[in-house]
Amino acid sequence: MYGYYKPPLNPLRISKGGINLSIEKENNYLQYKRTCCDSSVEKLLLTEDCGIIINPVEPLKTPKDVTPYLLIDFEKAVFVEPKGVSKIYITFPVDIGIFISGHKNYDLLDVFTLAMQKFTLYGDPGSGIICKYHKSPIYTSIPEEINILSEGIMRLIIINTTDRWEEITKCVFDSHGMKIYFDEKLVSLKANMKLITDNIAETDFVDSGIQKGMKKSLEVYTVAKLPVTLKRFTMEEGF
Amino acid sequence: MNIGDIFEEVIKFFGNIETDRIFPYILGIAIFVFSILLAKGISVFLRRSLKDKFDKDSLGVLLKVTYYGIIVMAVILILPIIGMDTSGLLVAGGITGIILGFASQSTVGNLISGLLLMVERPIKIGSKVEIDEVRGFVEDIGLMSTILRNFDGLYIRIPNEKVFTNNIINISANVARRLEYTVGIRYSDDANKAIKIIAKIMEDHPFVLKNPSPDIFVDELGDNSVDILVRAWTPETQWFGTRKELLWVIKSNLEKEGIQIPFPQRVVWYGNEESENNELN
């Protein structure tokens, strides 16, 4: 489903995993229709023809743009040895972004998701932050059975700079800096988590895919023309 | 004329001047110049330290009041030095001050409250607040008054003294907010089953936070119903939408499972009558 659909589009019809998407001619213009998960969207595209890019995007816009933070809760705790560097694979939720392209420009046309929607609080109500919530199993190698329309695989490098064994049950990221890469079989992300003290960790993303030849996704926040660089997030309320 | 002669002439000239008469004026000018420098210095210091706490207009007023206040005080200090009697001025100023003080008591109160509000910052522009039983969004915080737009879209001006002396509830200060329902079910219904149904609804709703987890329990054995208390946290921005959506979902799902929300009822027993139907439903 992911990829670039070149013009002429008339008609474009995609049905996959409960998603029905179509772009059809209506007089001189194009009619965009999408149904998915009990919701439907119709938009009129005032152009005779255009390209469409479909790729996984940061899970920020659905169901509402409430928070840029993503908390991934581990199904089982991870212990990291003192001064150790470990690599694990976890899942993360993705939204599906539909971008319209043409005249050397592109913009976000629609965004929706098949991933479970849940939010949580990291910290306390006074000083904490609201995060998108995702529960993930822990893998030591890249898992195969993943629905790429709803989830991606994150390679997480955990760097323990302390002199103690550290237990990790969750990690929090600033999704603005997410660099998602994809191909036909996999949606991926690389991230680091640096344990600074017993209670504080720093997380950030790496701008590359976990396998060779993966394409980089267009980002929702690049489209919004926000100056997004690779952002670090400091987890000050424990991990 | 050599240098020695010139020097002698200068000494002679200054010797003729009555230094006792000139010195107070020099001192006065020096104090005045110093007060201007001091006022400028304090203004710069205040501008730097308060620029994040005050809006541009209010800070401008404060800086001008400080600047001219210092200069006026310096002038009052200089006047007796140069031999002008200020006792009359002080008496007149004192009486005027008392009259103005009484006349502008509330105005000054509002002004000082406004300054304190700007320093303490219990509310910000855009905050959702409740002040003196008025709920709404803060549109502006001025020196004299605070402007709210209530949920009906009405413009409400509250004097700052009232804002400062009343309890302020800043609804949007924290990122998460708890909602609470009491759901009454019949005594004949299974409360555990009802709790499970409500817990599932909470789990499925995206804006009911995973952590802090919802709390659902039998709170009271009431006159007409078993009261189940439901407490759940939501993002503050989604609180009202979630609250209005969930209650009806709870009611509908309970009824689908055969659990009814009872009406108030009363069983009346007559003295010599025995009822076969002596169970409350």
Q: How would you describe this protein?
A:
The complex is a heterodimer of chains A (239) and B (281). Chain A has 239 residues and is mostly beta strands. Chain A has one domain (3-235). Chain A has 1 helix and 20 strands. In chain A, strand 17 and strand 18 form a beta hairpin. Chain B contains 8 helices and 8 strands. Chain B has helices at residues 3-16, 19-50, 56-81, 87-103, 105-120, 160-165, 191-204, 239-256, and strands spanning 128-131, 134-141, 145-150, 155-159, 168-170, 176-185, 215-221, 226-235. Chain B is elongated and about 135 Å long. The A-B interface holds A 63-64, 66-67, 73, 117-121, 125-126, 128-130, 133 and B 173-177, 206-207, 209-212, 233, 235, 237-238.
**What is the molecular shape of chain B?**
elongated
- Counted up, domains of chain A total 1
**Largest β sheet strand count, sense and barrel closure of chain A:** 8 strands, mixed
Largest interface: A-B, 16 and 15 residues
Q: Give the terminus-to-terminus CA distance of chain B.
A: 128 Å
How far apart the termini of chain A lie comes to 36 Å
Question: Whole-number average pLDDT of chain B?
Answer: 84
Strand share of the residues of chain A?
over 45%
Q: Percent of residues of chain B in helical segments? A: 40-55%
What's the β-strand tally of chain B?
8
- Structural class by sheet pairing and helices of chain A: mainly beta
| Largest sheet features of chain B | 5 strands, antiparallel
Provide the succession of SSEs of chain B: HHHHHEEEEHEEHEEH
Quaternary state reads: heterodimer
Helix count of chain B? 8
What is the SS-derived class of chain B?
A: alpha+beta
Helix and strand run of chain A: EEEEEEEEEEEEEEEEEEEHE
Beta content of chain B comes to: 15-25%
